[in-house]
Amino acid sequence: MKKNKLVYVGLSADILHEGHINIIRTANKFGDVVVGLLTDQAIASYKNIPQLSYKQREIILKNIKFIKKVIPQKTLDYTYNLDLIRPDYVVHGDDWKDGIQKPIRLKVIKTLKKWGGKLIEPKYTKNISSTIIKKKISETINPESRVSRLKRLFNSKDIVRILESHNALTGLIIDKIGVMKNKKSIEFDGMWSSSLTDSATKGLPDNSSLSFSARISSINDMMDVTTKPLVFDADNGGQIEHLPFLVRSLERTGASAIIMEDKVGLKKNSLFKNQTDTKQDNPKIFAKKIMKICKSRQSKDFMIIARIESFILGKGLNDALKRAEIYSKAGADAILIHSKEKTPFEVFSFAKEFKKSKNFIPLVSVPSTYSKVYERDLINNGFKLVIYANQLLRAAYPAMQNTARTILKNTRAFEADKKIISIKEIINLIKND
Question: Is the whole-model pTM more than 0.70?
Fold first, then answer.
């Protein structure tokens, strides 16, 4: 067969196995193979981003002898690329006749009809799965690859979804739980290590009672059993001279980002009743902390998120905007703008004005007070990351209190509350999740 015909194959190519090679080899029999390599953005639209970056996946495919050319496929929809190159054939395994890809398949058939193209569907290779292979790989994930993952998520998704984790068990919940919504897999993208929950779980009265080394130990426990990126809440970061040591420790654990707030003074934590005796830092001094971290980090993918407290301390919009400009110029990768108002009006006003600046950087939201806000509203206002802070501990603490009271009031716990399950059942749930 002449090799002047074009054959299009759409691939994610994160984990190449014999099934993919079979598809590519089959496609090669019909003509010159052009692979439409799905970008991180395309993959993130329906599931978690791949382990390998687009560039890494592209290099691998370009070195496979059956492939003539690799081009980016920026959406799950093949239409744009098919109209662009008008291939004679599209080759895809027959596993997409049902499920999430069924509408995409029908659209491919409709598009090919415009010029008489044909869809070829080899039998799906059984007894092999990218999901199973990825699971085995994730069990040996290294800190370096985890550090870079958050920045890739920033570049790939409309919004990155982070949930607070205060121990290894909550980390496992975040790592494993997911739901199907509108035929898409929805899950948390990473973990948030909060100084408030970390000190509360250890029964300490305030954040300053807990050293960074103790917090790093807690993070290591989480990292041992999870695969997703972690954002570290560093309060104000402490002394500027200590920041290089903290950053190096965080990178060694695999943490992806540090968040520092521009406040000085003691923040107390009386189990969910926050008391503060603080004032806002001089923005130029705080900017030096940001620059110190920039110089100290080993990987440029390790992100620095500056938290602005101007609204919390009543200094208003202009002060917040002035600080955002300074922190952005100092090297911050994102700005967390906080508010104690019950609506997102303040933070959205800030976002609207800051987006006009040439120094605009992505925004981070912690909607703990203005909780009646949808993620689409955050996206529309320039926010790239949302942190659901302290939610798991807030839910667990009263539940554990009520269970303890129930046990005291009743002779036998399992008679008092039928929802209580055994430790063995919990372990089995973790294993089977």
Answer: yes
